[in-house]
Amino acid sequence: MRLILVGPPGAGKGSQAKLISEKYHIPNVSTGAMFRKAMGEQTPMGQKAKLYVDRGDLVPDDVTVGLVAERLQEEDCKNGYILDGFPRNTFQADSLTELLKSWNQGLDHVLNISSSDEMVISRLTGRRSCPRCGAIYHLANKPPQRDMLCDNCSNDLVQRNDDREETVVNRLQVYKKQTEPLLKYYREQGLLRNINGEQSIAEVFVDICQVLEGKR
Ligand code: AP5
Ligand code: MG
Ligand code: ZN
After folding, report:
1. How many independent structural domains does the chain possess?
2. Which ligand is nearest the CA of 51, by number?
3. 73 C-alpha to center of ligand 1: Å?
4. Lowest CB count within 10 Å: 28, 92, 107, 204, which one?
5. Is residue 188 domain-resident?
6. How far apart are CA 63 and CA 161, in angstroms?
7. What is the mean pLDDT of residues 140-168?
8. Distance CA 120, CA 62 (A)
9. What are the tens digits of pLDDT across the range 119-137?
10. Is residue 126 assigned to a domain?
11. Which ligand is closest in space to the CA of residue 20?
């Protein structure tokens, strides 16, 4: 199964990708997480990405497409994958279409997780995450069991640098300008499925499973 998750920042892509990955045993390929890892390790790519990520702008396409092309050829992607946060503009979508064609692969679904601006802003400002294992929490909606410590690995939780309100506003604008046109792109290919992201995490996941299992 090969899936794309699209939707505004804070719609819940990462939270749902984790659940899909566990239930259907396919890896979550998150470009955002790959950039954050490289930034943490201060690799040359991470240092370059940081200039864009911290402002809420897209990392240049040559870096991003190359990264994904390599990742999708790894062994664990053989039986499918979830693309969380890629593609994010039409150049990336065209590049992915070309790559898939050259590998003789097709996509099963593009899941569009929708959410209002007000909702995503409150979700992002309340988000905390674990830098070690990537687990995602929310101060009000999904608090950790122990104050500011990860339930899985007890690491200190952190707030993402790009979750400051002014950066969130720019990320939303970038989404509307550059990423939203992809909805039409995939609708025309008959791949787009709309998911109401304004429900609880569990309810959103039920809707997604119904689509993946052909019940909706
Ligand atoms: P990326 O990491 O992809 O960020 P994003 O798209 O802005 O999305 P988020 O991760 O912020 O939100 P999400 O939808 O995953 O929501 P989450 O599940 O965490 O990208 C970061 C940056 O990297 C970009 O700005 C760019 O610079 C760069 N980048 C990445 N990909 C790129 C690309 N292809 N090209 C160029 N640059 C790229 O949930 C959010 C919060 O809400 C959490 O606290 C969660 O607990 C809570 N929550 C989730 N769902 C619900 C629910 N249903 N009910 C209540 N609370 C919920
Ligand atoms: Mg995410
Ligand atoms: Zn953790």
Report:
1. 1
2. 1
3. 24
4. 107
5. yes
6. 21
7. 95
8. 28
9. 999 999 999 999 999 999 9
10. no
11. 1
